[in-house]
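Homework help thread (please don't just give me the answer)

Our assignment gives two proteins as sequence + structure token strings and asks us to describe the second one. The first is just a warm-up. Here they are:
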Amino acid sequence: MITSKETIGYYQSIESFALVDGPGVRSVLFLQGCNMRCLFCHNPDTWFLTKTNPITPDEAFNKLIRYRPYWQNHGGITISGGEPLIQLDFLIEFTALCKKAGIKTAIDTAGQPFTREEPFFSKFNKLLANTDLFLLDIKAINPIVHKKLTGKDNTNIIDLFHYLSDIGFPIWIRQVLVPGINDKEEDLKETGEFISSLTNVKRVEILPYHTLGVPKYRKLGIPYKLEGILPPTAEEIKKAEILLGIEKYQGYLKD
């Protein structure tokens, strides 16, 4: 049996079969904890680093390896959240186990914890050595809009994009699209230009705003601040795709 150190992670759930969380069929480990408070977040139950579901890297590995027959050639495991980079030590050890077993891994992140300061930066590079792909969300390119939408600055997030581009680490970019907030033409054009400046983008996708998480807010007693905002129309999504130049980025991470 593959073993690891007794580092403890905290997770919210596991999805055995997913088609939208990276290349091919994926199994997804959702970790707890996130510093951002995105107004559109559909998983507010993952915001807090609650310690009700502890798990070691080898325990997580042994839970997820059962689904390996689903993954076929281009699938694997995606670690999502919450914000998985909050639990960096757990990620390093878990992805090391996966790499040793020949399993492709992807990290679904908004990048907010990123810094070039130590000890985070050295640990982050260890994670990159074990990992095959980052799924990086762009909440908003405009820093004012980003702060309004997430409660956090995006300077370090933009730095993360630049760093991964500089070292050639492959990424998929997902642009969250919230009508009336981050869908202005000038902002999407700026985002498209930013994406074009990067050297490592394999795919770009639109994540349309939806209201599926609203019942969770009511259950948790958290005010939902986007009441009345409707999901983008097909025409609005198409316009955003054109402004972002999505057709240029339809590659997949290959073996």
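The one we have to describe:
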Amino acid sequence: MRNDAPAAAPHPDWLVPDWDAPQVQAFMTTRAGGVSGGLDAPAEQRGLASLNLGRSVGDDPAHVVENRRRVAAAIGGEPVFLKQVHGTTVLRLRAEHALPGADPEPADAAISTDPALACAVMVADCLPVLFAGPGVVGAAHAGWRGLAAGVLEQTVAAMREAAGCDGASIRAWLGACIGPAQFEVGADVLEAFGAEPFHRDQPLLRFEPNAQGEPRWRADLCGLARRRLEAIGLHAISGGGWCTLSEPSRFFSFRHERVDGLRSGRMAAVIRLR
């Protein structure tokens, strides 16, 4: 395991939080910078080009190993990838979680107080959120199910307990996800959030019939996340604004790949203490 190793420079196409947090190293990957799914790859793997980090999407395992190695080199620590299930469990990283063959419990968020261990969440339309606090970092995978169930609140609570900090001292950064103009949802999402999106003048769930005239709603994942973070005392919230479905050449998008009949790769948002 690395022990506060110097980090390589992130790929210039990756997203880097625009926050004043010199105590952390953080970024979100894009498609760029990997070895998967070139033109000479089998047709079913071409949608994985080039930095796919997911092991269960049909990629060559050797490609995933190399892609993850590049992410580890850029973060300067050992990224611990989670078994994500759209829930709210938060894993506090320990050294054994980074050992070969480690099989930690399913979780959709992680926190770390160890500079050798980096939190990593994988996405391909869901919202990744990175957190930086005094002596602690965190990462959460926030699709609409996890967001509605409280994964962000649980992550902040775990950080506060681990480091004794308060919400006002924690910074949050929102990565790339499916944007509000593209995220078409049904009644299940409305039911999950209840009246919450309608508390202010700017609605975070908007009714717009689709092209077939069917009743549909469009959801603003970043807006919903910001509102929830503000409600628990976070004020330094940045990021958001990238839409994975609108830029499929730059980002992996599960919905876009599904339309084209391809397999979608996975990106990662990664953070560690320096």
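TA reply:
I won't write it for you, but here's a hint about the kind of observation we're looking for: The chain has one domain: 24-177+235-273.
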